[in-house]
Design a protein that fits this description.
This protein has one domain. The chain is built from 6 helices and 4 strands, in the order H-E-H-H-E-H-E-H-H-E. The mean pLDDT is 96.
Length: 191
Amino acid sequence: MKIIDCQALLTGTLSRTRIPVPVDTPFHTTAALILEMARAYERDGITFLASGDPVNALAGFYYGFGWLHFGLASGLLNGEDTSACPFTGQSEKLPPQFRAKLEEKSHRYDRLLDTARHSVECAPDPATANHMFALRVLFTAGIYNSQGRHLLQSGAYEGALACFSYGHGWLDAGVSGGVFRVTAHRDIFCV
């Protein structure tokens, strides 16, 4: 998917996303935070793209999708046609002048996601549905970490960076959403 198409998909999906939980509840506050963070990463991506930095734009859009998809999967957010997937087709190949930055950021985000996965533990009691959801979030982050590493090894840095950013977005939203307790490296999360 081209970066500009990813941005359009994220922008369109966000415009159709709503908070279904009652105002003046902790769940609404959490939902509003998750939606705002997804929008913030969308804005960051737009800013990076406009300034000629497609590497950070790509990371921003996929990170925003991670936050958004966490919110939708948790039921804190909903909307019409919010099943948009930014992983359709191959990632756009960036021009050669961005190669060094793309490689460095992809390797760094691989380490970041791996560190993040090992820096959280499920917060809800194991007998609850929220615990099962926390395990689902960990599984999702693990799948995208594995896929990103596979793409990294094959030299598909754009796809790798997208996977690492998306997976970390899920984890970061999970911390803010209360399904994880941070056990180390608190500075890599948005809490």
